[in-house]
Structure formats: C-alpha cells, structure tokens
Amino acid sequence: MKEKSNIKGFSLVLSLVLLFAMSLMGGSLIVIASSDHQGNNSSDEYQQTFYVAETALMEAEKSLINQMMGPVVNGVRSSDRKIPINIAYKDADDNEIVANRPTRTACYLSFRNLSRDNSFRLVEHQRNQKFINLIRPLITTGSKEETRMEKYMFEFFSVNAGSAIYKGAGASLKKTAVTTQKLGTTYRIYGCGMKVKDSSDTDPSIEILIPLETVIILSH
To answer: How many alpha carbons lie under 13 Å from residue 113 in its C-beta half-sphere?
Structure first.
C-alpha cells in the first residue's frame, strides 16, 4: 500500500510538471504568433507606403505633362500649354521673392542631394496629398480599409534641370524609320510616401516616410 501511495504521489507530481511545461509552451507559442503578426503588419505598412511613394512620382510626372501638353478639360486637351520652368527666385527689381522659397518639409529634407540654399528653385511642390482621394471609388465608405488608407499621404516636387538632347524614332522619306536627335527638357522628380498618425491634423505626425526620385525627359 505504501508503494502504491508513492507511485500515485509521483504520478501527481509528474502530471503537474507536464501541465506547467505545456502552459509555458502555449504561452511561448502565443507570444511568437503575436510577434509574427506584428511583423507582418509592419511589413504591409512599409510596402503600402512604398507604393504611395511610387504614386507620388507618377502624379508629379502627370502634372508636368499636363502643363506641357495642356490640361484635359471635359475630355478635350486645352491649348493652354507651356514648358514648366522653375519658379522665380527674384523679381524684376532684383528683390528676393520670399514666398517662392522651397518649403523644407520632412520629405524635402530626406533628399541629401537637394540644395538647402534659399535660392534653390522648384517647378512645383505639392504637400499633404491624401492617397485615399485617388482610390476613393475603390473603397467602401465606412469600412476598415477606408480607415486604414486614410493614414497614407504623399508629397512631390519637381525641378527643371535644363535642356537635353535625346535619341528618338522619327520618320524619313528615304527610310521607314530612323533614329533622330530631339530636343527636350530634363526634370528631376522627387516623391515621398508617408504613413501618418492622423491625416486630419494640419501637421500630421509621420510614422513611416519613404523617399523616391527619378529623372524624365519631356520632348518639346
């Protein structure tokens, strides 16, 4: 009887030890799963912010093309066209135009190759643009997706970098097609995708910022 009692006591202790070990394992699995979930969310946020930054570059390019070719009004291309140039640094009397100084936003300061001098000029600078305004028709009003996408914003600015000669396909009387040299204007385009804490704020707190830049040549 005494031996059986010892066996029962040992079994009880072993059961408690196993139960405790399983509890620890279960807790560890929950912590690991939670960590993986947070990591996936963070990865998704960075990926979405990168896509918003790419959208900023496309919007900047579209703006330049609209200025050069004329904006589309009621489905018709307007005749109001021009070669986009950098805004003036000084007026006709050689006075500095303070209002035309570049606004040194977090996006602007993220590009180390940009001048910090007040005389640095831009063609245009669009700030605090809400990404959701571009995709509004695709989002259900009042949905969780709408709430999530409202936190993404973008910013872009462009710089006229001067004339450029480039090669393009052209027609010829002697040949069906030839390579010709054409004159165009080079533009440096800078864009940022941002995830902010609250897009309704006048100066929203930025949680993620991804800067991108590219160069395009628009023909005359």
So the answer is: 8
